[in-house]
Amino acid sequence: MIVTDVTDARAATDGGADRLELVADPQLGGMTPSPDVVRAVLAATATPVRVMIRRTESHQLSAQTAELLRTDVESLPMATEFVCGAVDVAGVPSLALDPVTAAMKGRHWTFHRALDDAPDLAAAATAALFLPGCDHVLTAGDPAGVDTGIHRLRAALRDSELAAALVIGGGVTADNLPALLAAGARGVHLGRGVREGASWDGPVSAALVRAAADLVHGH
């Protein structure tokens, strides 16, 4: 689930989150957090933390931006896992990401929601999983979120091997979580849906995280 600081991380951990995605600017889809924040969150929780590596809202990556992302990774030697991604004009994983993943030096990472627009979601996600270190793909099935993308998600989740690597996120709430689990989701990604007021300005609610975790683990 998405966290932005130590307070978020502690509440998420108290609620039973299995893994955290640490970002800055969640209202922009998540950007690279500062090294000081990364260091503090890692010290505050034993829950695995994946650090977002992203500088722009665009999912297409220029050589200049790729260089910035590479330096971001190199500035975070304390991080053990990451989240990043980029697509080409066809909406499939981009080779422009290679310098960034090379800087990770074998550390695992999640391909973020850049693939939501892919013409063939399952094929694009499978291609992403062949990238060095990529072991999960985060997707809502559609840029508008899981409610719009549910049909594409169902199709992708029919592949049991792929389903094990997909993390479903983007507008997940207590209302739609049961349908996502019924569709075959094994991992889900929570954001505003477990914050007070369903707002990025609200704190993470450990009680809402716990309710979602109980649904996932009890499915």
From TrEMBL:
Gene Ontology molecular function: copper ion binding
InterPro entries: CutC-like, CutC-like_dom_sf
Transmembrane segments: none
Family of the protein in this entry: Belongs to the CutC family.
Name of this chain's protein: Copper homeostasis protein cutC homolog
Originating organism: Flexivirga endophytica
Lineage, highest ranks first: Bacteria, Bacillati, Actinomycetota, Actinomycetes, Micrococcales
Gene of this entry: cutC
